[in-house]
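Weekly structure sync - notes
Attendees: PM, LS, DV (DV joined late)
Agenda: review two folding runs queued last week.

Item 1: First target. Sequence and structure tokens pasted below for the record.
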Amino acid sequence: MKKGLHIGAMGIIIIAYCAWIISRICQMPINADAACMILEAEDILAGNLFLKDWSLTGITFLTTDLPYYIIGTAIAGVSLNAYRIAVSLMFLVMLGCAVLLCLYGSKRKWFSFAIFAGMGLFPTFYALSNTFVHTAVFSFFFLTVLLVLRTEENPSRRNFTVLGILVALAVCGDGLALVLITLPLLALCLFRVVKKPVLLAVCTIGGTVAGLLLQKLYLLFGADMNSLLHSEFIAPAQLVDNVLLYIEYVLRLLNAYFFEKEVFSLKTAFYAVKILLFLLTCGVMYRSIRNACKKEATDLPSLFTGIGFGLMTLILWLTTFSVNITTGRYIAFLPLLMGILLAKWAEGFPLFQKPLPIAAAVLLSFCLAATNALPKDREPVPENVLSRMATFLEEEGLTSGYAAFWDSTSITVYSEGHVNVRAVMYSGQALRPREWFCKKSWYDEEANFVLIKNEDSVKEEDTYRYNGIFNSGIDSGYRYEVTRENVEKFLGSPTKTKEFENYTILIYDTIQLEKSWL
């Protein structure tokens, strides 16, 4: 009877928590990347299994994020609800994998979970809004660490086979797996901190090669991997900017962004605690890497995750990968990682073997969780004009047109497919399709309008803080080029114009794009 009550209470708590997460995700506006994933999923569900005629982004998401979007679209069709279902599932699965890793091998599971909850259980809106993509590979990241621990306890052929399959699936779907999974696994082998380094290396290399081959095989039957992104190493002068932007990612993810806030307040004290805990987490990872280099005993979870997180940090510091505040999605797993490593560190720390320090740590963890969960301490939710734009266009009978990428496919999803807005770019001489997350046949549709974001709004967006999140040059080079001047240079004067909030709609009898790239 008592056991049944415990299970029932736990079930109610889990359901309430999932409802809280979903309610937060329901407040998130969709962006063009996620909208394209929904349209991609719709096409697969319609029978185009190999995404023939699609131009992708350099990443397939075939075995990582895309299955979640397929589930969401299968349930809700092309709609905002499909996005909500997909992101909710991705986040909850990632959280589940993180909790499993946190509790694995713990002798005081209640204490480990209590410590984890302080950092990882209640994500900030910034963290949650960056889980729309790459989230599934973070789940693989946590599962890989868990499987490494399992193979250390039981180095059976079955466990190594499962590990190899996991690597293959992660690498096939998302190139981040090479940084977060393949390289850390190989580092474990080189450091010889595992029982069977040769076998682990064979599984890692075999899984990585199999994943890349599976990706190439899939692409042979349909989509191409054209990508407009070309990452390079930055000039030395840009290093400071990248590091400062990285610091902002971290502070936003932890709800510890103290700039422009009161110096002396209770909130500021919690900001300071979270920053200190981040530094402690970095210290735990650093110590494990140092011990491995010295051939001393080391902690596998902190070593593995430290290498993966460290490599990702270096990429964000030293390359053009880091563009603006939205690039924080590449380390959106940080709060969960901190929760895991702090829980494992606290369980083994001598101080936390006594009742009073344990109670103090649990109380602090509860307070940290509350700073993210309580309504008065949450960040405001951004408003999205594009949802209203979708309604306006449909009411005006404007159902097929073009816009800059970030203003395009989101409208299509908001309108549930009743209004199709495709992404274009201005090449200097002509208006043409944007070769990024698109289906080429979209541009055979008859279109009669171009959506332009007013120049003053674009300039504002490059310098202002939108609900506390700094947007520095989003999509510069594409949004800015789709201007009224450039559109009229190629298409001539519109037959009619309409204004809606901070947008202008240029209406033509028909529009012919330059499509030589197709």
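Item 2: Second target, run right after the first with the same settings.
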Amino acid sequence: MAQTNPPNPKNPTDSQIIARFAKTGTAMRALIDEQARKKRRVRAVKLLIGFIVFLIIFYLAVTTFIFNPIEPGVIAFYNAVPKNCEFFARKADLAADFPLPPTVMTPGTEEAVLWHAFQNGKLGVPAATVQSWMQQYDTFVKSLEGTPIDPLRDLFGKEVCVAGRFADKGGLDQTRFCVYLRVGWRIRALMGFVKYDFIRNKFIKDIKIETLPSGIWKVSPPGSPKDFFVYRTSDLLMVASDEDWIKEVNNLLIDKEGSFGLTTIYAEDIRKRLDQRVADRSAPSNMQLYINLDEYRKAAKPGKQWYDPASPILEERVLASVFHPEFVKDLAAVIRFEKEPRRRIAFDLTCRTDGEKLQPFGRKLLQDKWDQQLTTIDVRLAGEMIPQAAFGGGAAAISAGDLARALESHLTVEDRRMFDAQVKSAGRFDSTRALADEIGNCLGDRAIMVFRENNYPHEDQDPADNPPDPAVAMVFPQRDPGKIRALMDFVKNNRTTLGVSQVMTYDIDRIYKLMEYYINQIPGNGEIAALPVGADTSSNFFISNQAKLIKNIHRMWAGGSQEEDRPYGIDSLYKDLLAEEKGRHLNAMFFLNGPKFSKALKKYTEYWMGETVEMTPEQMTAQRPKVFERILKEKYPNYNPQTVTDKIREEIEHLVDDDFDKRRHEAKSNISPQVKQQYDDMLRHVASVPGAAATLQLEAKRARVYVNIILE
């Protein structure tokens, strides 16, 4: 066998030499790769350090010259509102509840009832002022075209707050205000760029912007007679009517002691009410409102109050004693928008009241009865007694005696003298007031009310049927069933003396007696129907201007099976509307069915339209002598108003009445299509509301109203 020679380091073979070079090359490549990796790591670190340095420089530049992107936001806008503000409104997440178009001039917004009223100056702000605001806003929106700014998303969609004070002089046009907007990075960045003159002068040429020494912008929109003042701190953008308001806010952000958010009004009437409702409804979105109505009235200078204490109509005089425009001093509210289980809007209102503004009857009623509340049984009974054929109904903690005394106390001197003589001649009472007191002795302190369209089928025994007035019924508990029956018989037995033209009696269930009294002086169908049911203190007394409505209610309450006799109390809509008030202390509650109410109102539209062209009593008084003189000259040219005989004067007066009637008829026949359309729109809006409910809680110097409206 051949012997293999050992390797000789001094004389390596070719294969050994090749192996050595291969090994050395591998090591060299590994060394080169390692050096390359080190260079890449160093380059990456340098790039990272450079990028970090760039970010720091960029951040410092942006923070210094534009805006701070990580600055903390203003937590609560109500802490940036001065405590002595006279109006305040705040809405978070506006875009979720009001997906409005980007401009208020867009067709479609006019269809909203409240917006239409606001636009036409019916909510206190003059229509010309509203139009000016609309044009300014439209100009503002158009100025953003071509930019990445969306008004709803970037300005108004997150949170909006409006606060201000009314001017004692100069009217509502002089109101001081500030709009608070929660803005995102787009607006903050845009304002950071716009603050530089060279950018502003290049891109914003139509709007003049001046930076004041305080850092606040003074903005002069084109075509606007007023300047606005703009300032941003963190995510709070303020647009104010004057510079001082913004300065006051900046002080509040440092020291919140003078803020509206720390006032009793906000804590008790807004925050607390919101917390209570949150327990009932999970995570509701809400709008918060406050208005000092005393200060608003000083600025708005409203004219004649809604109800006139000197009205020739008795019912209006009674209402004027209970309602007075200055009775409510201020108003705080939480308005909730819901989508589940039904789309609805709920108003939770708290009013501070001043009973001294009321007339003696209203003041006494408030002071004596505010703690008189409905029981759970009363509310349930109302649901059982209001038939679904009715367009509305409710219950109130008020007695028949109070209502009777209210009517008596507001009679004119002549009417009281006449009624006193009639009552005294009947032999049982010495005055109308004594009769009213007896009604109070007979009936209790709860009234259930039912309102229905008066469209019952004609019956021969009714002297007047289907009048435009609604059929109204009230149900009272009986204190003494024997006394109320005796009182009904007293009216029946003395009908001629008491001015009752006719009395009709019907048997109900062969047990109870329903009486109909026809009195010519009563407007509408001249009817009063009465039915006492039961013989103990838990029994009820029904009274109405339509006997058929009493029969309808009693039949339903006794277990009627017809569709129109179904009570609202078993209806899911009715239950849902009043569910939140279950167990709460209430002084009154009311329910309304929109479609049925609209149908009942339709009968009144012709009358209301006629009122728009009717002459007022003052105008008629001023015109009558002129018309009298003209007709007298045409018919008896030899006479003048001073020398005319009584017989001729009476004849001419009748001709003057005919002339006014002719004018009235011609005016009504020429009512403009626009006026008719307004009333048609009103009926359509009312009919679009499936149901609404309201409740009232009275305290000594405060009233709480809760209104729940289902929108679909």
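Discussion on item 2: The first helix runs from residue 14 to 65.
Action: LS to circulate a short write-up before next sync.
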